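Bench notes, afternoon.
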Amino acid sequence: LMLAQNAAHVLMFVLMKQSVFLNKEREIQHRKTAYCNLAICRFLLVLG
């Protein structure tokens, strides 16, 4: 029983770290996208 509980805790911990990491990745991706959009907007304004 103790081993199963420990395994469950480890699994939860890993999943939490994973989701935090994924959120971080998504945030970085979002920032890149937002920055690209901004750059494109500026470029179009300059062209226009």
